[in-house]
Amino acid sequence: MPLRGTITCQRCGKKRNILSKFCSCGYDNVFLKLDYKGQRYRFFYDKEGRSFTITTAMSAQVQIDSAIRQHAFDPSEWIPFNANERMFSVLFEKFLEQKRKKLHPGTYHVYDVYYRIHFPPLHNTDVRDIRLKHLQGWYDGLPVKLSGKYKKNMTDCLRAFFNWLVRWGDLKECPIMPDIESPDSVPRTALEADTQIEQLAKIPEPFRDFIEFLMEAGLRPAEGCALKIQDYQRGRLLIQRTYSRNVLIETTKGKNKTWRTLSTRANALVLHAIGNDINPDRFIFVNPATGRGYLPEFLRKMWRTHTTVPQDLYSSTRHSLGTQLAESGTPKKYIQEILGHKDGRSTDVYMHPSDSRKREYLDNRNKVVDISKKRQNDR
Question: Could you say which DSSP state residue 318 is in?
Fold first, then answer.
């Protein structure tokens, strides 16, 4: 007499071939469908709360059939009370809740978007059963229109989530992450000082001082927008807040307060912006169009609208300053301090050899014979 219940693939819903470890769709986890006393049940876990594989489901099917014949079957024994607690969706929401105060609002928002828009294929999966094949299947199913960098950021988010589970004892080890395509982002490049001056002249005059200040100080645009009069002290600025998605937050990217020394020109621009105002809570640079402090997105849009170079505002100010300092012979330690980096390796990213300097080195090769002169001598 056949056993009661049907073993079915969790992914495609087809009846499973009990002689094969994997379904034709490539998935191995299954569930057991059973009609009992007019009720339809679906069992996904064994009595220890583990997701069924074809082997464990067959064993459970035998046990359930035997219990039914003996009139001793209790469906609740096969529905672990804490099964939902191990679901990806439940644990990821806990992850977000715990990280809410630690993440920048922008990062938290992005993680929430990943969870709601891109992670649903993983929502109903026990985190202990997630393997590389599941993650690779999820990754391969992402929309083609998403950029490589966006996909990489989502994968990094998943890695952070699984590492959090390991830390809290919900997982023994982080699963292997899927193979990802190379990010297709365009490398940042710097502007030379002459080009900066040309582009600065294209910015409407009322907004020009703040853009010039960012070029001189090398602050992140969001940090520059967040500066208040109380942060200024005799040629120095205390960087202690920033913007994240146009929301002012009382912390910085590195979560530490740092003093930055200003150049003579940057200091003059700050003093001019402050004027005779003594209100410590007023923003140093005020947007003349609104009468309030600048927002980073306003600056980025204005730069894109009025300039004619491919570099964005960040590259044209902060990255360009790092390159100009390096090419003028400034020791790396000083560049690191000026840009406010904890790690010198971050400073290396901000040094982009300019075309003019590369051309200068090419033209000044001493060990290479001048081909044109040699040809003239041969004649």
Answer: I
Alpha carbon distance 144, 103 (integer Å): 28
**Three-state SS at 374:** helix
HEC per residue, 210-241 = HHHHHHHHCCCHHHHHCCEHHHEECCEEEECC
Between the CA of residue 23 and those of 31, 45, 263, 298, what are the distances in Å?
12, 18, 67, 53
Tell me the pLDDT band of 170, cut-offs 50, 70 and 90.
confident
Q: 285 Cβ partners below 8 Å, 6+ apart?
A: 209, 210, 213, 224, 225, 227, 273, 293, 294
Mean pLDDT of 172-180: 89
**CB-based contact 61:50 (threshold 8 Å):** no
277 and 229 Cβ atoms separated by less than 8 Å: yes
Candidates 3.40.50.2300, 1.10.150.130, 3.40.50.10210, 3.20.20.70; CATH matching 85-167: 1.10.150.130
User: Which stretch of DSSP H or E encloses residue 363?
Assistant: helix 355-363
User: Is 70 exceeded by the pLDDT of residue 347?
Assistant: yes
